What we know:
The structure holds 2 protein chains of 2 kinds. Chain A is α+β, with helices and mostly antiparallel strands. Chain A is built from 16 helices and 17 strands. Chain A is elongated, with a radius of gyration of 30 Å. A two-stranded antiparallel ribbon of chain B has the order 2-3.
Amino acid sequence: MAFEAVIGLEVHAQLSTRSKIFCACSAAFGASPNENTCPVCTGMPGVLPVLNRRAVEYTIRTAIATSSTVQRRSVFARKNYFYPDLPKAYQISQYELPIALGGHIDIETGNGPKRIGITRIHMEEDAGKLVHEGEFAGAQASLADLNRCSVPLMEIVSEPDMRTPEEGGAYLRRLHDILVYLGVCDGNMEEGSFRCDANVSVRPAGQESFGTKAELKNMNSFRNVEKALEYEIRRQIERIEDGGKVVQETRLWDANAGVTVAMRRKEEAHDYRYFPDPDLLPLIVDESWVEELRKTIPELPAEKIARLERQYGIPRYDAGILAADRALADFFEASAAIYGGNPKTTANECVHWKDAVFSGALSPETIAHAVEDRERGTISATASKKLVELVLSTGKPFRTLRDEQGLTQVSDASALDVIVEKILAASPKEVESYRGGKVGLLSFFVGQVMRESRGKANPKVVQEVLKRKLG
Amino acid sequence: MAITREEVLHVARLARLSLPEAEADRLRVQLSAILDYVKQLDRLDTRDVVPTSHAVETGTPFRDDVVQPFGDKEAILANAPDRHNDFFRVPRIIED
């Protein structure tokens, strides 16, 4: 029997605000333990949470960018549970009335573009962090660091619209890129700024109703999400084929073992007794506020890919790589504006040197000059690479270095004639074999000429001269 | 009878309260009386009434995104029953 997987993803993204969502503590990562705490985020009696306007704006921008509908009125609710990383014994979240509903994003798949629905976006606060490792491994105590308590998060819940791990990965990457483009989340998965849980089920192909789903957690990279989905889908199918049943449960991805493992089931889990938080009045968002924010939305990845493809005639794949990072795409466009000869070559160079691009060590001019000189045959590909490396180590302009280093390439056929003659005279046996039909020896001759010219000969012209002389 | 004994025990467990047998019964009677009292509202047709979460209908006020450190970590940690350096020390929780 053929099976089909049904995948829905929940993303928790940390909003890049300076302060926390309900108090003025810093939301920065990496402070010393409990440095960023105050009576509000540690849940002391008598304090009142006050909502961070920027956190709301960032969430509204995300809603606009995912074509979701911003709700005029949304309500914060308390999600009640006991855990030492949660000093109030409830998390402030949104439940029945979230800030945004009903959007979508478009992804690229092997079978063309596909639209993935967004069910809802809601705002909430993060919990603290517990330390069990190090000297406390095996100890009777855990240590709580409440710096993360009340750091602003938004949860973005997709429709169960994905059918393969690849689609799941494509959705996550696209959503990640959108948030980073918007500047609402730094997208750092290692620091937990962008986290993902997955709901997965399988059903016989053609069946309408969903199978029983498992919830996957603990996947901290795009690759791990794809691998965990692959594993879990196979596990569920095998279970059904063996006559078993899939159990609704939460499973943790173990990246080292490459398996998902059922979490010990907590008694009475998921009885959170949500109710509207009496400390926070409803969040009212007027249409005029949404319209104001709509004007601040930059060109987003999907639009940028389409435009780069159209405007520069580069393959969609290349446009996708460039557009995955706004800074890289901007750099490419700046380079192509200086020298527009062959944007595909410019794109390749930008991707090749992207680390230097991100660190700011490279100017668009360098890449433009490198591409232009190569296309005009003034320098070889090898020399181009060497020169860019020199630009990075010395900081001198590309063309100054080119002239200083004498790396200009010899493309003049008559100048190369002399070297070619010399090489052919020195290799009579190979010349005979070549003429006898071993045409593969051409690369041997090219190599010899290149060496003799100390890399300065234009290999394309060398080939032409060689063919003429040997032919 | 609006509430069962099992529900009383369930709610108590969620609140981490241990109830002696006798008290569970006493609370069941009291909680049932409270629920029955509130149940009088069922006599009204509230189909078109939006649930009231707050008594005032203005929106929540905002604060600007400005960091103002509280600046007294000791005061925060002073409330902890137990601490280790600058951490709160809590009974070990097995992550599951």
